Automatic annotation (TrEMBL):
InterPro entries the record matches: ArsR-like_HTH, HTH_HxlR, WH-like_DNA-bd_sf, WH_DNA-bd_sf
Record's protein name: Transcriptional regulator
Gene Ontology MF term list: DNA binding
Transit peptide among keywords: no
All residue ranges annotated as the HTH hxlR-type domain in the record: 13-110
Keyword DNA-binding attributed: yes
Keywords: DNA-binding, Transcription, Transcription regulation
Cited SUPFAM superfamilies: Winged helix' DNA-binding domain (SSF46785)
Highest taxon, organism lineage: Archaea
Amino acid sequence: MRFSNSNKPKELCPIISAISVIGSEPKLLVIRYLLEGPKRFNELQRLTSLSSKTLSNTLKELENLGIVKRNIVNTRPLIIIYELTEKGKELKRVFDELRKWGEKFASVEQIYQQG
């Protein structure tokens, strides 16, 4: 469903805005796994099955949005750890509710039938 600017329901605007920020599959996957705790790039890549380029771009986008922070551990070799910011951690309740809804209404079979 698309809304033109003139008929966009006011109560939906924050929902649409939030989905436009975090609504891509790569972003959702990265946030999902970072909600479990900090992760290194290779660990995130293994968990999400995203290509290096897609994961790198996704992490940069989430960092620019203030949802993910990149921590550099000054060791040899350097270790880079990604974790959620406070803003990112606020998404936990949202993800918990989405998970409940998905378990109740969105079966894997339905997803693949649509694709």
